[in-house]
Structures
1.
Amino acid sequence: MRCREGVLSLYLDFDPAGGDRRDPAAAAGDALAPLQATPLDERLRKRLDEEVERAISYVREERQVRGRGLIVFSCLPRGLWEVLWLQVPVRPLARFGERAHIAQLAGILDEHERYGVVLLDKERARVLVVYLNRVEHDTSVFDAFPGRTKMGGWAQARYARHREAHLHRHVLHVVEAVQREARRRPFDRLIAGGPDEALAAFLAVLPRSLAGRLAGTFAGELFLSNAQVLEHVRALDERSEREGELRTVTQVIDVASAGGAAAVGWDDTLAALVEGRAHKLVLAEGVSQPGHACPAGHLAVVEPVRACPVCGAAMQAVADLAERAIELAFDEDGRVEMVRGEAAQALGPHGGAGALLRF
């Protein structure tokens, strides 16, 4: 959404590890102070003051901190008021401009996929859905499992087969419960935990549609607390996310080097975005690049250009081309991937920007 009257974007961090949980209103005031010191004309100053008052009033009235991070997008002229409480930390930030500042939110959403989690033993199971470090749903499955017997010989063998049949039916019921959750709350990855025998039986009947999403298993108890479940998800998510990011960056660099459908560096990446050719924009987390852009969206470049070669309009200075690149990607239904660690280092020599192209 774009509004010449200005959109306020506010990110507040309340993470116990380093955020400010003492006074939410004071935290909002601290984040907004540098923005309020920015020189603006009288009209935009009045608009900014309206949005700041609206945001601080909300935080003051809310009183209770309901997450580790808070994001607010506000624009009175366009009727925009979006509040997101997240169970993940955010970087404190305040921006006021024609568009909402969505780069950090895009990075958060890219970093956290939705997970299905199965905890099971021979007669019980829990199926959980986890997103943004929060358990969205938790459902249970129960099938009575026959106890052990002292019978011997043929009767013992028959009873063992009876127990195996019960376990088989149980894990089929668990799979059905997982499939129901996948339809109601589609998840990207699946992890499963439990004793060896029950876990092996479950994995043996997992259909291809779920097996393709299986990201890992662990030896876990059925009654793990939600906090313990989240720890397992976080550890697996971190590892798989970093591995996937490195594969993506390697693909971008290799394909671009071979002259294929990929771009690296700001100029080539921005050109592909403006032309609507970018399928996936890839940026190193935290990368920032000042530049220049056509107000009508025809051109975005790093080096100064006096006028747009398409429409002749004067080019405008842009404080952060990363934000503009993300907007261009979303405008063309493209995907955005923010990369970290080794992947960000690999993309560094190319300015921290690249893209996989549609053509």
2.
Amino acid sequence: MTDIATSAYRRRSLGLSLPLIFGLAVYLPLLFAARAVLGDPDTYWHIAIGRWIIAHWEVPRVDVFSFSMPGAPFTPPEWLAEIGIAWLYDRFGWGALVAATALSVAAALTMLLRALLRNLMPAHALIATVLATLLVLPHLLARPHVLTLPVLVWWAAELVAARSEDRAPSLWLVPVITLWANLHSSYIFGLGLAALLAGEALVAAGDRRARLGALQGWGCFILFSVGAALITPFGLDGLLLPIDLATMSTLGLITEWKSPNFQQFQPLEVWIMAFLLAALSGGWRLPPTRVLMLLLLLHMALRHGRYAELLGLVGPLLLAPALGPQLAKRPGHQVSFLDRGMAALARPAGPLGFALAGAIALGLSALALRGGIARGGDAITPAAALAAVAEHHIEGPVFNDYAFGGYLIFAGIKPFIDGRYFYGDVFIKRYAEVVSVASDELPRLLAEYHITWTLLGAKTPAVVLLDHLPGWRRLYADDIAVVHAR
């Protein structure tokens, strides 16, 4: 009778599933969030680099985009994603980048919910996925890292499943790391997660034979994965690049790399409080190795805000195998009625469900993005200021705001600095001290680089200094940018 009722329910649900419905619920609102999705200056230079690669049929090895570091070694680890971003933009405009970003996030969360349903009851899996969504959304930008979120969830879910079944991951998973390594440097986290789970397998092994088996299986997988990560245009340099980036001393000067400011609302606080409430009131008992992994993810999220999405997406996958049996046996289970209602939807979607979801997504995408997305002046797009510069025929090297570097590259103007990290600690620190007037280096820097005009944010402290600097005049100003000319 239960099977008959479930079959009837699935017929009424048109073959949809809970993960698919959740993915649609995430995807559709994001289509209308273009301002937030396109609110990062790095999107501009990602488009420019992708265009350069397509035009030259090669990946740059030195910098050709700035005037301050010409010929400096530059290896864009996101080269493959940048090709896709440039192609989408050039053929379909900003709306395509918004849709691709929304689709990547929705796909990652759909995959997360599907993976959690292996171990958790529907209500608990849904709660964990909603909390993950809270941590992903603050860093929702049209940039390469978003395109790798489905890859991250796929990789982590497969590794955790292998550990739950007390086996090494399949070598068929290894090519995923090659794809990941050419999309974004976050693949190094995937290798680190494999190493942590391999260590857990060794600790959990009951005897020498089991330890040798775990060492052989996981060691072989990690060795092949590292080899697969070297299959990029940059080889070993590409493998070392994420490590060099993570050890930069000036990361704290960049907003996305700062620690979360809990004087303001932070989704991470909601996640922590929800986790503590559930763990303390439910008496959760977790394997020490998984507790340590979760603490490591939490430490990373507290140190750098952009790592919060790793905690949200990977943390539940690590905990679900141990929590599932405990939550299922808990007496007086308050959400059992929700689980019964979602039991049928928790099963995988059918072909009709995928077709229906695709039709809904395509229809509403066309509706939301009809007419395209026009970008005028905004906090990262000083279009009016550049128009004034062109009108006055100002030429020569520019000293620009960090947030304007991407748009300058996009507009065909070589900036002094932009969002790429290859400039190095010494250069970035000097720049930060100059624009904040924490040093008296501005006149010396302007002379050293033969700067003929500046383009700085309206509220940048250096603007006031330039107003009083001999030999300089204010050429243009609005709420976004101020231009000074020599």
